[in-house]
Design goal:
This protein is an alpha+beta fold. The chain has ten helices and 29 strands.
Length: 606
């Protein structure tokens, strides 16, 4: 179909479908609407099913599954669903893929059964990704699976019926960014994701809102609308608030992620009087080291390195890693949204299905330790993780103790019973010494990946965390202060583990600061080095202090939040042996955050 004909149909029908929706503010309106409010009881009731689910499937599926990471015989870098942008494919050329999209092996019932058998409670599927192609029969235009492909079946309609049969909650991902629609970005710009503003963007916004109305009207009750691509220049916080209000007016129980807002700032928690749109935070490809206390959040992650299918990506995470991720996330009060990228034929890759089946087998006997659980009362456990329910601690043992004794540090509650979750009628012996409880376990772990021990306790969990001992100097006299050992002062900063970071991050408030205590056996002069990272546009000035001495530093851009550089700040003299406190305090910040901080090292100079 010629582009001119398609565009005409898109705009005319899009205007018709606006009935029942309030008018969206102009792209750069100065006046911000008031966000719809609800009290805590109302919010808790709306979020209840999602908080209890803990585990869902993400599906990225569309035309990008056909090239599967290659264009004109050459491999294209990065993730599969971004091939249109990364290979600079013109709209007219990319849209010809629709004539090849014929996923005859797609079986909605099989998908739904796979999801349910894996222990997942909800499905989030791409109704439309950044390439603009829709997996549903939209009246907003012809660029969709029913009108533009030989398949001619509404994928979302079939999934709606199948999910209902299996008891899976259906949810939709919908991209705000659209590389296909002529009014969504500057025409002819080769890098779609970085296109300059488009004066016709309000026409695209009307088209998108018409699609969203269809999704809410035609596929039954929808659990979540999961937005993405909000970083484009034409989208504003005001538009996000207005859209949030409109969607909740259509389905009041709808849950919407924080990416509907411009700044992804919907992670401020469960406050009834929040000011940014979005109901929960969406850390991507990472698990926050301490969760996001006081907020609802969901980690979305891939099984390999891509979201959309990419045939040469065989970097699959192990079943052990995926199960540990699920438990780790639940132990921090979050949900796990695990992605599958189906093939162009409509099949889930065999490696994905194998891992899902293994997780599901474990969930069938251990699901009580995941569903509807609360976060761990322990800051760290050397052998695994902990999830909670009233009167119960679920101890997830990743590392089976060689001596058969599982140490539970700092728990002061009386224990009324202990048993393996798979053997509730066989109690385990619990002993207590010097305020530490130890559970006697079998010689071998029943499950090598994660065996769950249940502790039944009286009252709310009461855990005393001993203050960490001051860091001691190394044999060569140097002092190495790691991000994970710091005392954190403030509401946003936290330790990020994995993903090339292992550093203090989320330093979005310049009032937050960190400190370490350390001891010296002898005085001396020291060269101070600091390892830090900052993405483009971020950074700031800071001060490092030890008693009355101060060194100043400025965070320069290092390329990304995981590109660390080590800088020498200068020298300090510590004139006596004994205990010291070192602090790092920002003076200001640029962009999103001050820095990611990995280490501070004091190296003797003489």
């Amino acid at each position: 179909m010629r582009p001119s004909r398609r565009i005409s149909a898109t705009l005319s029908v899009g205007i018709i479908m606006l009935a029942g929706f309030a008018r969206l503010p102009p792209a750069h309106a100065g006046e911000t609407p008031t966000l719809i409010q609800e009290n805590k009881e109302q919010r808790d009731q709306r979020m209840k099913w999602w908080r209890e689910a803990r585990f869902g499937m993400f599906v990225h599926w569309g035309l990008y599954a056909i090239p599967a990471g290659e264009w004109r015989g050459k491999a294209v870098g990065s993730i599969g669903e971004w091939i249109m942008n990364n290979a600079h494919i013109p709209v007219a050329e990319y849209e010809q893929l629709a004539s090849q999209f014929n996923p005859v092996k797609f079986d909605a019932r099989q998908w739904a059964r796979t999801i349910k058998d894996a222990g997942m409670e909800y499905l989030v599927i791409t109704s439309k990704h950044h390439d603009g192609f829709c997996l549903f029969d939209s009246r907003q235009g012809d660029y969709n699976v029913v009108k533009a492909t030989p398949f001619k079946r509404d994928v979302l309609e079939e999934l709606s019926a199948a999910c209902k049969e299996e008891g899976v909650t259906l949810c939709f991902y919908h991209s705000i960014m659209d590389w296909h629609h002529p009014d969504a970005q500057a025409p002819g710009f080769p890098n779609y994701s970085a296109a300059p503003p488009n004066p016709n963007f309000p026409r695209y916004a009307a088209y998108m809102r018409g699609q969203l109305k269809e999704l809410l009207a035609n596929y039954g009750h929808i659990g979540i609308l999961w937005f993405d691509g909000e970083w484009i220049g034409d989208w504003t916080e005001a538009q996000g608030i207005a859209l949030y209000n409109e969607l909740r007016a259509v389905q009041p129980d709808l849950i919407i992620n924080n990416r509907i807002g411009k700044s992804r700032s919907g992670m401020q928690g469960m406050s009834a009087q929040k000011t940014s749109p979005g109901d929960y935070g969406t850390p991507e490809q990472e698990i926050p080291a301490t969760g996001i206390p006081g907020a609802d959040w969901e980690s979305c992650m891939t099984m390999n390195d891509t979201w959309g299918f990419k045939k040469n990506d065989q970097h699959w995470k192990s079943t052990e890693t995926l199960m540990h991720n699920l438990v780790d996330i639940a132990s921090k009060g979050g949900n796990f949204l695990l992605n599958v990228g189906p093939t162009a034929e409509g099949e889930m890759p065999a490696a994905s299905v194998e891992r899902l089946a293994a997780i599901g087998k474990w969930m069938k006997v251990n699901g009580d330790s995941i569903y509807a659980t609360g976060p761990s009362p322990f800051a760290r456990l050397p052998w695994g993780r902990c999830t909670t329910k009233p009167g119960k601690l679920f101890l997830h043992v990743f590392k089976w103790p060689k001596d058969g004794k599982l140490d539970v540090p700092g728990l002061s509650n009386k224990v009324s019973n202990a048993f393996l979750l798979t053997a509730p009628s066989s109690p385990l012996k619990v002993t207590e010494s010097e305020g530490r409880k130890a559970i006697s376990l079998p010689a071998e772990a029943p499950n090598a990946i994660d065996t769950v021990v249940v502790l039944q306790i009286e009252g709310e969990p009461n855990v005393t965390v001993p203050a960490p001992a001051p860091k001691k100097a190394e044999a060569d006299g140097s002092v190495q202060l790691l991000g994970g050992e710091a005392a954190l002062h403030g509401g946003t900063i936290r330790y990020e583990e994995g993903g090339g970071k292992d550093a203090l991050g989320f330093w979005t408030d310049p009032k937050d600061w960190v400190s370490w205590e350390f001891t010296l056996d002898k005085p001396g002069k020291f060269e101070v080095g600091i390892s830090l990272a900052a993405e483009k546009g971020s950074g700031g000035e800071y001060a490092l202090t030890v008693r009355s001495q101060e060194l100043s530093g400025e965070v320069a851009e290092t390329g990304s939040w995981s590109s660390f550089v080590t800088e020498k700040l200068g020298k300090i003299e510590l004139a006596a042996a004994g205990k010291y406190t070192l602090a790092v305090k920002p003076r200001n910040k640029r962009g999103i955050a001050v820095m990611n901080l990995r280490t501070v090292v004091l190296k003797p100079t003489e």
